[in-house]
TrEMBL record:
InterPro entries in alphabetical order: Ac/SucOrn_transaminase_bac (IPR017652), AcOrn/SuccOrn_fam (IPR004636), Aminotrans_3 (IPR005814), Aminotrans_3_PPA_site (IPR049704), Class-III_PLP-dep_AT (IPR050103), PyrdxlP-dep_Trfase (IPR015424), PyrdxlP-dep_Trfase_major (IPR015421), PyrdxlP-dep_Trfase_small (IPR015422)
Binding residues annotated for pyridoxal 5'-phosphate, in chain numbering: G103, A104, F136, D221, E222, V223, Q224, T279
Family: Belongs to the class-III pyridoxal-phosphate-dependent aminotransferase family. ArgD subfamily.
Name this protein carries in UniProt: Acetylornithine aminotransferase
Length: 400
């Protein structure tokens, strides 16, 4: 007998509230549940399934590596990890890469490196971390404390010291906080979980200048925006601002758990042998899959196609909205799209999501007022059109 959704309530820790249906199979941008019902996937596993489900290149890489080597630990290195690191270095500002298993771990490593550099160079007082109000950087105790959302960090006892929060896209609020004891500023180029709000070029350039002035490091959290999501390999290219450290995960593995911290050679030297680590980081299976995913995404044709797919989705959303008048704004970059509800529908994003599910469409929320779309970067036009048709029906049902 197959497991059911009821088994979640019986056996699993109740920190999630999953949908009533249980997906069992995916292909491209379509998903099927236990009853055989089909869904168009505009959610992408929360911006993870960068090539959709069961992409041939990823499946082939996983299958080949599964017959070779699964795990050896970081007592040794392995060929897939070295090959992936070389690809990342060749395509980015980075000169060194640290592999881990998730975005939270990538940010944990980034923040630890930044503090280590500050303390090594300037003394123990150089440990202050600045981040944005309503940001999201992971669920470890350090990263959830750095993320500016008390609803995620409250209730777990005293938080780590030396963390302060500024207002996103408000350079003056950063200037009021930053000083010579600041080790780093961490920022999402697009504020993801809190509404799909892109940073302005002026704000990110201003952060770069402030960090340089105060000998602080600039960290870009590109867990959600990286690996082609915005139409560039990484979003920093879109804004013309180069960070000192960058975190990546989600789309990097195309669905296989992997994270990475990218940095320069001179900074990487501060994490000498034994100062940081992870049992599974750089796992051969994960790196083999990520290497295949990287090759598909870092192809000029794939990256160029993202703009066309965004235009098709946004045009469809605008046409639907012209008829139904549900959304106040369509925003974001590339295939990270936020549709903000009008004030009349404030707080009802969950209702829209449920209506979409009922029509066979998987979407996401970004807070209570924004519907978030993060589909496959190679989603077929036919799937876009069918998904938009289902979304239109869902919004009509939502409005009643």
């Amino acid at each position: 007998m197959s497991p059911t959704r009821a088994d979640f309530d019986q056996y699993m820790v109740p920190n999630y509230a999953p949908a009533a249906f249980v997906p069992v199979r995916g292909q491209g941008s379509r998903v099927w549940d236990q009853a055989g019902r089909e869904y168009v996937d505009f959610a992408g596993g929360i911006a993870v399934n960068s090539l959709g489900h069961c992409h041939p290149a990823a499946v082939a890489a996983l299958t080949e590596q599964a017959n070779k080597l699964w795990h050896v630990s970081n007592v040794f290195t392995n060929e897939p990890a070295l090959a992936l690191a070389e690809k990342i270095v060749a395509a980015t500002f980075a000169e060194r890469v640290f592999f881990c298993n998730s975005g939270a771990e990538a940010n944990e490593a980034a923040l630890k490196l930044a503090r280590r550099v500050g303390i090594d160079r300037f003394g123990p007082q150089k440990h202050k971390v600045l981040s944005a109000v309503n940001s999201f950087h992971g669920r470890t105790f350090f990263t959830v404390s750095v993320g500016g959302q008390p609803k995620y960090s409250d209730g777990f006892g005293p938080r780590p010291e030396g963390i302060a929060h500024f207002d996103y896209n408000d350079l003056a609020s950063v200037e009021a906080l930053i000083d010579d004891d600041t080790a780093c500023v961490i920022v999402e180029p697009i504020l993801g979980e809190s509404g799909v709000l892109p940073a302005t070029r002026e704000f990110l350039q201003g952060l770069r200048a402030l960090c340089d002035r105060h000998n602080a490091l600039l960290i870009f959290d590109e867990v959600q925006t990286g690996m082609g999501r915005t139409g560039h390999l990484f979003a920093y290219e879109h804004f013309g601002v180069v960070p000192d450290i960058l975190s990546s995960a989600k789309s990097l593995g195309g669905g296989f758990p992997i994270g990475a911290m990218l940095t320069t050679d001179v900074l990487a030297r501060h994490l000498s042998a034994g100062t940081h680590g992870t049992t599974y980081g750089g796992n051969p299976l994960a790196c083999a899959v990520a290497g295949a995913v990287f090759d598909v995404i870092n192809d000029p044709a794939t990256l160029a196609g993202i703009a066309d797919k965004r235009a098709r989705i946004v045009a469809g959303l605008e046409a639907i909205n012209a008829e139904l008048g549900v959304f106040d704004q369509i925003r974001g970059l590339g295939l990270l799209i936020g549709a903000a509800l009008k004030p009349a529908y404030e707080g009802r994003a969950k209702d829209v999501l449920n209506a979409a599910t009922a029509e066979g469409l998987m979407v996401l929320m970004a807070g209570p007022n924004v519907i978030r779309l993060a589909p496959s970067l190679v989603i077929a036009d036919a799937d876009i059109d069918e998904g938009l048709a289902r979304f239109a029906r869902a919004l009509k049902a939502f409005k009643g």
